[in-house]
């Protein structure tokens, strides 16, 4: 009998291939052969627009899910932060690899470190003319709103492309700084470039995206593939991801919204979670903790707090908008 070779769907970027090789190596350790099947998603092809303008992060995931359901591939490797909050019927996250550092990093050119030094003028003091400040590259509204509020960095411009491309745009002066995920930089071994300076954001304050730093492997629910992937699963990471995705689902967060969630499962079995949603002109933060057995309930409670806090402002805005329409 011919030995089965499991097909793993992946994007073709250097980071995606690196993450897929990590999964393949873990499978090889338990005697399983696999091959990578590269798919070019709509998100990979439309590189000149921010993601939220043509479907959000789901554009990196949906086509893989269709291939799994059709049987063309057995599983797909995702950056968990790119996944929608709800997995489609018939599919499941079969494995989460141990979480890498979930923080964001502001990368600047050595010799142009406007963010270092400790002084307010170095840490992004607000200026009367935002365009006169350092130009920061990111297409994430979550990152942008926290940059503006916490550091007064107002000159933010869209940035697309893979990690090496973004760093090259920084080096050539198109940007004065770029915001990237620490996990991606580390996996590509691009976190110690001698001509660059790296400022790691405190993940407890400058909150990451839900699932940031996590490699998730998606497959059909039930059956041989899910059973196989459970051998690779890291339980702590699984719990943290479930809580963060549960919060996102609870607030019905769209892919383009400035929303963040960061959960940490402690050695004592307590899950501590902090979330953020931008609304009414500022970032609103909420936090809570619960034993592991109540993680889903904690996510639900935090979602309820966010919705309750923002609803009055949103309803007032809807009322004002409606009044203007009537007057017009």
From TrEMBL:
Name one cellular component (GO) term. Answer: cytoplasm
What keywords tag this UniProt record? Porphyrin biosynthesis, Transferase
Where are the annotated segments for Disordered?
117-137
Signal as a keyword of this entry, yes or no, is no
- The domain of life for this entry's organism is Bacteria
Q: Where is the Porphobilinogen deaminase N-terminal domain?
A: 7-222
Q: Which NCBIfam families match?
A: hemC (TIGR00212)
Q: What is this protein called?
A: Hydroxymethylbilane synthase
Q: Which organism is it from?
A: Eubacterium pyruvativorans
